[in-house]
Specification:
Elements (H helix, E strand, L loop, with lengths): L1 E4 L10 H9 L8 E7 L6 H14 L8 E7 L8 H15 L6 E6 L6 E7 L14 H16 L12 H13 L4 H8 L1 H6 L3 H10 L2 E6 L2 E6 L4 E3 H4 L5 H8 L7 H10 L17 H49 L4 H36 L5 H10 L3 H8 L11 E4 L12 E5 L5 E5 L2 E5 L4 E5 L3 H15 L2 E5 L2 H13 L5 E2 L2 H26 L13 E2 L5 E2 L4 E2 L2 E2 L31 E3 L5 E3 L31 H15 L6 E4 L6 E11 L2 E8 L2 E7 L1 H7 L7 E4 L5 E2 L7
Length: 730
Amino acid sequence: MIAKHVPMKSIKKSDFDALVSYISDDQDKNERVEYTSVTNCQSEDLTAAIIEVTAVQGMNTRAESDKTYHLILSFREGERPSNEVLKEIERIICEGLGYGEHQRVSAVHCDTDNLHMHIAINKIHPTRLTIHNSYNDHKVLGNLCEAIEIKYGLERDNHQPSKVASENRAADMERHAGVESLLSWVRRECLDQLHAAVSWDEFHKVLREHGLTLQERGNGFVISDNDGLMVKASTVARDLSKGKLEGRLGVFESLSKDSGVASQSTGRGKLYEPRPVRSRLDTTLLFARYKNEQANQRALRAQQWKSVREERTRKIDAANRAAKLKRAVIKLSTKSRIEKKILYALASKSLLADIQHANQQCQAERQAIFERHRPQQWADWLRRKASSGDVDALNALRARDAAQGLSGDTIGGIGGARIRHGVKVKLDGVTKKGTIIYRADSSAIRDDGDKLKVSRGSSADGLEVALRMAMERYGSTITVSGSAEFKARIVRTAVDAGIPLVFADPILERQRLSLLNNTTVRRNEQQSERGRGIGSGVSGVGSGVYAVNGERFTGTKRRDGFFGFFNKPNVSGVGRRPPPESRNRLRDLSSLAMVRFAAGVEMLLSGNVSGGMEQQGAERNNALRRSVSGAGLIVSVEADKYIAEREGKRLRGINVPMHRRYSEGDAGTLSFAGLRRVDGAALVLLKRDDVVCVLPVDEKMAVRLKRLSVGDAVSVGESGAITLSKGRSR
């Protein structure tokens, strides 16, 4: 955890209203403002709080320093305390700084890689109307952060100050803008040569070769480039302070004019120029695009500003001419002296109003032009390009040394990403580390290129969207990292949503297969209850439905107020349907289509019983599986049993390709990989890349598929309908 005070460079620009408006603005993003809070104000409404704080600040007329204290609390990547904990942390920090009774507005932002909180504090006490400036606040904040990390189990940070303020500002610039500072460039290019210099001439020569000069400023030295950008010599290195340099090289000798002229000629090859910080990717061409675009934006901005200024000048000139004409008319009029004086005043007032209107319109147009052609830092330009789909810009963001990837509860994959993009999600933003934030209803999904993370609103719908995105990007084999609770929710979501994936973790895969089998058995039991003719003892395809009196409906005639339905459950009269404990007793064994469900994936159907055991073969139980003519894919226990057997071998290290059920997303042209029979049911194997999809088929289609050879192309629809080369389908 890091706490940092953001001072205002210009006190005149300090504005509590503008600060609160910034920290509470969601910028049309779903994943930006987690929540806002108002403390020690009469109202929790932001607008009312701003008015109240502004009024309190206006009542103190003696304070000349900044009356607003802007504080930022940032947490490690992956840390996400609850809102209650964040509120308590805010209270501890503010009380530790002496602002416990002061008015404040806070907002939690989650649109970056690190969760952070902005706190806008009114430094004017609401009752005493005195200003409070916290002494040595950076040390106080460090001690408070250490105590909070221990109390709430947060990851520890180093809070011991080891850099001066200017060095911290340079590091902040490099981190936020993504370009190398003059301080880092001097350290990298010429610090060793400056240490090796034994005289002032050699020292100035080294600086001259790099387009730099050493000047006295105050009680020390500054190093400046040709554009006037300066850095303290003691900030570059401790031994470059004025005292240590004069102790090593003697009394300071300034650079002569002749040497200064020479510096401009010899230093052209190594002049400092802001360039991207070093990363794992060459960004030379991309940075050239950035510079060219920024130059074009500057030119357009200057040209449009010039046009606006010229328009303002024309309007003011026209107003002056009109006012001059009015004064001439008034002068020639026959009005009295008092009347002319009044008319002159009205003309002057009209002129001032016209000039003011022209200036205001010019200022508004200038601001609009600036917003359209706003200059952008390198990192912000990369984010904008990445948001518009520029892959090179996105890779440049992810190649920065600061990008470490997502951690915690994440979903990943094994193998290369697939090109399909069927999951509809809305892009919410891109962070400076290249993490893409997608919006899926109330959930936000983060993507760093290697893993996905549901960062907020991790409902079952959000997890399902994340799983489908992972399948599209990384294939069917999914890896899951994080807590045991998160892994259990992922497995349950995959089974409930019917997502045809395979977990790389053998434990998770066994859990998925077990849940899938239990779910299939439960669904088939429910279908069996709905599909069996109660009281008739008859089931199966084409058996029909019987009325109360035992007469069979043909499906075409109406009898006793009932319609006949083909293969629909019977409606029994009073006393015809036995109670649950009396159904399917052994006395009706000869007329029942029996099936036994095993606890695991094994299953024995009546078709496995030989015909010599007082039974010539049982009818196919239609309640156990849906007909091919029904809507949707066939729910087949045999397919799941075969998949479980093949996946078990693969997980034991046997060279077997991955098997899974055929899904709607696999529709298209697949490769025929053979036919299999499990418990009398026909299964066709369809190969897609390195994955074998298992699809149940009826007997007629199985006979037709026997004519194919392994490797032949087969066209399969979303519902599982197979079309052979002649165009016939099942």
